[in-house]
Every structure is written in structure tokens, then in C-alpha cells.
Model the fold of this input.
Amino acid sequence: MHSGLEYKEQNLHFGGQSLQQIAALQETPFYIYNSQSILSNIEAWQAASDPDRHHICYAVKANSNLAILQIMARQGLGADIVSGGELLRCLQAGIPANRIVYSGVGKTAAEIALALEAGILLFSVESRQELEQINECARRAGVLAAISMRVNPDVDAATHPYISTGLTENKFGIHHDQALAVFQMANRLEHVRISGIGFHIGSQLTSLDGFAAAAQKVRELIPQIESECRLELEWIDCGGGLGIQYNAEEPPAPADYMKLMDQILGIPGKQLAFEPGRHLVGNAGLLVSRVLYTKENGDRRFIICDAAMNDLIRPALYQGYHAVYPVTEHGDPASWNKADLVGPVCESGDFIARQRPLPNLQAGDLVAIHSTGAYGFVMASNYNSRMRAAELLITPEGDLHLARRRETYADLIRGEQLL
Ligand SMILES: *Cc1c(COP(=O)(O)O)cnc(C)c1O
Done:
């Protein structure tokens, strides 16, 4: 059983709250996040860091709800963003601009201008053309843009191919062979200031080997760059990607990852940035759904629930595994038979769990789909004209907060115009 969950009188409780009771008031499906578990994840990073040298920038794309960002802001975290929209969210939630790093291969001129105006810490540059664009935007704004170069170290992160980002075949970063040349180019540009170097090799990494290999490659580049460009890099961005336990994985602890980065990249006078996303919020969230129908096709048992791939796309997109708990205790899991838990969307790829031991659930029963706090709601869509789910947050004080209401039919057609 994942932490934060417990059956009390056969009723599943999350962060001390009865899911049955919440579902009596809140239409399903809904996401629910537990602040306490987010806070203890943050604590695991902060306890291992030296605030004068280590900086934790939450990767906003994992879960960008304003209330979640407020928790990050209150704990003193910075942010790693990938769009102008994420920048606006961070500022709205109180994350100071000077703790925000901006990553991504396709920042538009308008987004760059917005970030320059806000005064972010630095842009993580992913190509020569982007570098020129940042220089041009900074010229127009009459400011100096601080930049860090994201190096593609060409190392295998040993994760699902769709969330691997540090290989030559991935679109991310500047290939390590070209890094020096691009730094030299940046050095000649008038409106950028070279501030750092970094890498981010993928997500849901459960071994430190990939991190070590990437850090080593970047470590070797640093003296070359500093002597050839006659400058001192101030920031080293170690990226994010630390994995979590969905099923039987045994990911390293933040302290071990930070210690390893310190061993390889802890150069006196340099600041290290870490960009955890999934690790801070993934295990702190549930998607709660109600069973609509059950049926059998030959020997295949289907449980059709009201959550679908438009609510949670990880199973379809990454073969993601999410533990499923019946909200009412259903005997010994060893006695359960296999079933497919599927949603109402018209795609065979619409499943939450496939061939999974599940109890004899019936229409009206509730299930809690675990570890959906990261890359869950943020990837939700309106496919099949389904409204996006509500997001609830159990506050640090233990109260239930509606962090985002469920969409309505009016939300669904907002912005559309009849002929
Ligand atoms: C997605 C991303 C992260 C966070 O990844 P997680 O696996 O959620 O920790 C960090 N840095 C960058 C540049 C990213 O794109």
C-alpha cells in the first residue's frame, strides 16, 4: 500500500480524509492531492541541500495548479518553466521571477519578451537559432539576458523512449560536440550574458548511472569553455527526472542524487540547480473514479469507469502503471482476478489498467488511481467533449480545498463560434 493511504473501517482514507465522503459531494472523476506528502517530498530535497549552493526549481509542467505552485512558493522553491503560460502561473502563485529558469526547445519571441520583462533567473538555451532570438529580444527590450546552455550529453537514461531526452536522437539540448562552439558564439553576442551550463536527460529515472554519465560529460566541458571563452560559469543545472515508485521500482533518494551531483559538479563558487517535477508531486495525488458498468467479452473482464484517457493519458502514452485501490475494501488482493479498467472514450487505447488483478467491482463502486499527482491533470484534454475533472487539495492544515472546479458545458464550448 502506498503511503498516505489507509483503510479505516474498510473505507479508503487519503491524507486522513474519507474518499467515500468526498465523492458524495464532488462529482467523479476528480483529482485529489495531499499537501502533507508534497511537503515531505520537498523536505527530502531541502534537508539534503546547502541553501547557499543548491537551488530547487520545481518543474512546473508536472502539475501547474496554482494552489500547488503556492505550496512550492511558500517553501521557498524556484521554478523550471517551459512556456509563457507557466511563467504567468508562477508569478501569480508568488514564485519570485529571479528563481525561475526557462527551458524548452521552442520558446517564441513573445514568450522570451515576457520572461525578460519579468526578470527571470536564466534561459536554458537549446539551439543556436534560439540563442540569436534571445539576443534579439534582449536588444529590443534594452536588457541583458542571462543564459545557460542545455547540453545534450548523448547518454542513455534507461527510461521509456518518449521521456528520454539526453540522446542524440532526441530534440533536446545542444549536442555536447557543439557546446563549445555555441558558447563561443554566445560570447560574441552583445545582449546575452553567459551564466551557466546544464543538462536534463529524461524523466522517471530509477538509476543514478545516467545522471552520473551526463554530469561527467558536462564536467569535462566546463574547464574548456571557461578557458576558451575567458569567463566563469556561475550556474550548473542538473535538471530533473528523478523517478518515483509507481509499482515495484526502487528509485534513488534525492539525497543520494544530490550527493552524486555534488561529487561530480560541486565546483567551489558554483551554484547547482535541481529541477524535480514528478518526484515532488507524483505520489501525492490520486484520481478518484466511479464504476459505470462491467462486462465480459469472452474471457476478458472489463470494468468501465468514468475516468478516461482524456483525464489520465499516461497508460496510453507511456505504458504508465498506476496502482488501483478499491475505495471500499474488497478482501484479500490475492483472490482477485484479472480485469481491464477502462474509460468511456472511443479508443481501444483508452485504459487505466490492463490485465490487472482487481476485485469484483460493481457499478457505483469507487476506485482510487494512485500516483497521478504528476503528468495527470496537466495532460488532460477535452477529447470526446468530456469536461476536465476537478482538482482538490488537502491543505497543510488538513482542510479540503477546491483547487480547480470541474468544467461545465459552458467551459466546453467557450471561445467557439457558430457560423
Ligand atoms: C520535464 C523537465 C523536468 C522535470 O522532470 P521530472 O521527471 O518531472 O522530474 C526538469 N527539467 C526539464 C528541463 C524538464 O523538461
